[in-house]
Amino acid sequence: MKSLLILFLIILSFYSCDQSSSGNENVNGLEVSIDTVLIDTGEDFINLRSGIYFSGLSNDGKYLFNSGGTSPYLERINLETLKFEEKMDFDEDGPNAFGDYVYGVSSDVNNNLILTSHFSTSIFNIEKQKLKKYLLIGRDFKGDQLVKREQFTSKIIPTKDYKTIFGLVQNHDTGEIFFAILNEETDVLRKVKLNGFEKAKDFTVRYQQGRGASVSPQNTEIVRLGNKLVITNPVFSKIAVYDLVEENLKYYACLPTLTASEKVGNYTREVNSREEFNIRKIEIGKEVTFLPLMRDSTNNQYVRISILGLPKMNEKGLPEMNDHKVFISILNDSFEVIKEAAVANGIGKLFSTPIPQKPFMKDGKVWLYLNVNDELAFVRLALDA
């Protein structure tokens, strides 16, 4: 049985200084404490082929569930005891089937699991019983229609009674993104265009290879934070927020002071070689990238990470992304940035691996994935209140 390892503890303070004229002049500095913990797996092991990119938290924040992808299981990790608890094997077929390829795991307000696969989204309880299945592809809707090249994208968020779902619809021709509300009982769909979110298409790179293609997209994401649905895109700081109580959609600039508020470069979207594809991805990554907002319920605030790529030339004279500058922003309930900091050197390496980071908040700390000799560990960033 492996014991829990506390690898390091560093106290660092950083303060914003060069504030942009378009930013919030009342932004303060932020103190960040860093420590690292290792998950105790006993005699078992956790599949880290995709890191924790296909994982999600339980609604109470106690567990992390890591998907087996094409294999029908979830790995349950207790984030309070820092121990691997169980490999949850699901049925491959039948009424409680796992799904063909589960790439999205989240939880709802009932603390049930939402498993998203290519063709459907299913609700499971902790006993692995399927409570509900949503089919959104090839379906006829009333009200607003899905026109050619439009489809639901990203995960969906159901209401407590599972009668209504919220999600995103993307038009793959125009790049337009819509906020969608679907009544499951009446099949009535309502779409609301998200103004300006089509800009993300200008920063998508595609390399066609015969009948297949490699695509580096800028995906719009939706997440439930309390009674709000927060919609973000990595290209810009602006967010859209749907208030579940007031039932309205609003936009917030969320202007940072330590970085630009959006990507601005002009890039070739269709490339002719793998080498050019990688170069364009790196060029786009040199500009600021905004990660989705997180809710710090411990300190009653929102938290956001943004990154700037720091590529270097390799021995072949080609750029490689091997480091990032990392920034943390604290936002108030009006989604205004009130504190910001550049995080310590070394943290950027965590954002420079082939497996994308998927940060999450727990107990007032940002948790970042770390692979230590094929064992699961987390670097935790504690933020001052």
TrEMBL record:
Protein name per its UniProtKB record: DUF4221 family protein
Signal sequence interval, chain numbering: 1-18
Superkingdom of this protein's organism: Bacteria
KW Signal (keyword) present: yes
Protein's UniProt keywords contain Secreted: no
Keywords: Signal
